[in-house]
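Duplicate of earlier report; Dual-specificity RNA methyltransferase RlmN isoform B input re-posted below.
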Amino acid sequence: MKHETLDEHEAHGGDGDSVAISNEGLKMLLKGMTYPELEKWVQSHGYRPGQAMMLWKRMYGNNIWAHHIDELEGLNKDFKKMLNENAEFKALTQKEIRTASDGTRKILFTLEDGLVIETVVIPCDRGRTTVCVSSQVGCAMNCQFCYTGRMGLRRHLTAAEIVEQAVFARRLLTDEVGSITNVVFMGMGEPLHNIDNVIKAADIMVDEQGLQFSPRKVTISTSGLVPQLKRFLHESSCSLAVSLNATTDEVRNWIMPINRKYKLELLLQTLREELCFKKNYKVLFEYVMLEGINDSDGDAERLIELVKGIPCKINLISFNPHSGSFFKPTKDERMIEFRNTLAGAGLVVILRLSRGDDQMAACGQLGKPGTIQAPLLRVPEQFQMAIGSSA
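Output:
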């Protein structure tokens, strides 16, 4: 099995998924289509566009979320016969659901080729429930604090495999946790490395006749692939999160190797320029706090300067430990001090508590590295004391 590295990742732009064929090579996988594509396919088999809309609503709307032909009640008998012969409805196979002590669910799915991905459903007391979807099997970015990054990249997910995670989440858990209102592309993978399929999947999720997620409640996260980030802001109405995690190039080069290609200044200036053209739009900066690495008073002051001129919110995230990691989470009192410094400068700051960490379902904990793993990078000398003997 090939494990892609950072040096190789730019060779892939995110292969498109305009025609999705099931494993038999004969049936069309419907979850990989946008509505115009589905309508065209239905018409090519001699049926009216109205039939396509009825099918679409049974796959994505009306609380049906159909996975097989028996769930397509109300459709024309001949149309159902055609679908039975020519269409496939499921892109994933449910393997296991694990429930954390805080109610977070981690769903493991098996893909057609036997690989496994993970999806997390996070209930919230305020009536909001979020599904965190994966966009790749593994990840090529090799962020040093992320468990998924240890895997390297196995492959991109198709649009169908991404959309199906949200469909499954609603189908399996709506009765238990209530309406699933938000989607975050913060599971396994770098979403903008697989930009074609991610934009297509997000478009399907926000379709007003289907899953009906609000574009502002569908958030795509990136480690900072600048060309793809610009394309996303031009082509999608969904929200953007940027995983920042450091205030100097020296630190970010180490913990997020993508920074060696797209430096902080380029990343942030691109956001300043592009967001001028997006009305009432704020980027979410994610900042995983690592004790002794990026949580000093100096880091707080630099962060305030870095985001000047960018409409934004800042999400401070507690680091979630995992095997093989030598980082330590910043203590709660220090996180509060850091937040107060940012808020005192007028920034909107959110403290994100860990959810699902007892089932390895928290931020940065998804995936299962094999015997071959992405390399750990050399620790800069000034931080060797901070990580101590655990390195």
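The domain at 28-88 is CATH 1.10.150.530 (DNA polymerase; domain 1).

Merging into the original ticket.
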